[in-house]
Design a protein that fits this description.
The chain is an alpha/beta fold and about 240 residues long. The protein is built from nine helices and seven strands, in the order βαβαββαβαααβαααβ. It has helices spanning about 25-35, 45-55, 100-110, 125-135, 140, 150-160, 175-185, 195-210, 210-225; strands at about 15-20, 40-45, 70-75, 85-95, 115-125, 165-170, 230-235. It is globular, with a radius of gyration of 18 Å.
C-alpha cells in the first residue's frame, strides 16, 4: 500500500532519500526499486526496522553491480543522526500524528534536506479521523496512538513555517476509511469479527491485485473520504 507518490516527489537516479518513520518499510522498499540511488529508513521502533530488513531479504534480487543501496536505523524524529543538507528527498508518511512536538520534527526534516529538496508528507485526514475518535476513545489513547487530528490548512502552515513551499495535494485510501470505522465500532471484537476480517481480506486482495473496478471506486472515494491527505513541499533555496 503506497501513500506517497514518488513520481510527484520526482525521485530520480543518484538521489539520497529518507523515509522518516518507515514502519514495516513500504515506502523504503518502493523507493529502492523506483530509482537507482540510496534510500535510508529510520523508525523509533526496533521491531519495525527488523521487519523492513526482512522485507528486503524476501524481495527480488537486484542485478550484480547495481548502485542501489539501502540503510536502516533506529532513530528519533526530534534528533535525527544525519548531517545538515544530506538528503535530496524525505518521505514522512503517517508519522506526525504520533509526535507531540511535530514542529520540532519538521525543523529536523528541514535541517537534513538539501536546498530545493522535496518533502512528501501524509497524515490521517480530519473527517475520517474524527469519526474514529468519536466511535472509540481507545483508538487514539492507546500507547503509540494518534495525539492530534490535523486539518490540512494547519499542517500546510506548520510545514511552510519550517521553510517549505507547498505545491501539490491529493487524498489516498478512500476504501480504507470504512475499515477503520468498522474496527472502532467493534473495538472489543475486532480481532474475531467476521465483518472486520472480511473487509481486511478485501483490502489485502485489492492491494495485491489492483483490479480495475476497485481502482475506479478509489478514484471516487478518495476525494470524499480518503483516509489520508498527502501534501508535497519543496524546501527553499539556501
Amino acid at each position: 500500500m503506497q501513500t506517497i507518490d514518488l513520481d510527484i516527489l520526482e525521485l530520480r537516479d543518484g538521489m539520497r532519500a529518507l523515509d522518516l518513520g518507515c514502519g514495516a518499510g513500504r515506502h523504503v522498499h518502493q523507493a529502492y526499486y523506483h530509482s537507482v540511488g540510496h534510500v535510508v529508513g529510520v523508525d523509533l521502533g526496533f521491531d519495525d526496522v527488523v521487519r523492513t530488513r526482512k522485507g528486503f531479504e524476501a524481495a527480488p534480487d537486484i542485478e550484480p553491480g547495481s548502485r542501489r543501496a539501502f540503510s536502516l536505523a533506529v532513530a528519533d524524529a526530534l534528533t535525527l543522526p544525519f548531517a545538515d543538507a544530506s538528503f535530496d528527498r524525505v518521505i514522512c508518511s503517517e508519522v506526525l500524528e504520533h509526535i507531540p512536538d511535530h514542529r520540532k520534527a519538521l525543523s529536523e526534516i528541514a535541517r537534513i534536506l538539501k536546498p530545493d529538496g522535496m518533502l512528501g508528507v501524509s497524515v490521517p485526514r480530519a473527517f475520517p479521523e474524527w469519526v474514529c475518535w468519536r466511535l472509540e476513545e481507545r483508538y487514539h489513547t492507546n500507547p503509540g496512538g494518534h495525539v492530534r487530528i490535523f486539518r490540512t490548512g494547519g499542517l500546510k502552515r506548520d510545514v511552510s513555517a519550517a521553510g517549505f513551499r507547498f505545491f501539490r495535494r491529493h487524498w489516498a485510501h478512500g476504501l480504507h476509511s470504512p475499515y477503520w470505522w468498522l474496527q472502532c465500532a467493534l473495538w472489543d471484537k475486532r480481532e474475531t469479527s467476521r465483518m472486520v476480517g472480511a473487509y481486511r481480506r478485501f483490502l489485502e486482495w485489492d492491494i495485491l491485485k489492483r483490479p480495475l473496478l476497485t481502482r475506479m471506486l478509489e478514484k471516487v472515494a478518495d476525494p470524499l473520504m480518503g483516509k489520508s491527505v498527502v501534501l508535497y513541499f519543496r524546501k527553499g533555496p539556501a
